[in-house]
Amino acid sequence: MKKISLSIGVFLMILFAACKDQKESKEDPVRASSEESKDITELSDSPRHHEWIDLEQDGRTLKAFVVYPEKKEKAKPVLVIHENRGLNDWARVFADKLAEKGYLVIAPDLISNTVPGKELTSDMDSPDEARTAIYRLDPEQVTKDLDACYDYIRKDPAGTGEVAVVGFCWGGSQTFRYATHNPEITSAHVFYGTAPEADSLLAKIETPVYGYYGGNDNRVNSTLERTKAQMDSLGKAFEYEIYENAGHAFMRSGHEANGEPGNKKAHDQAWDRMLKFLK
Question: What's the pLDDT score for residue 9?
Answer without folding.
Answer: 42
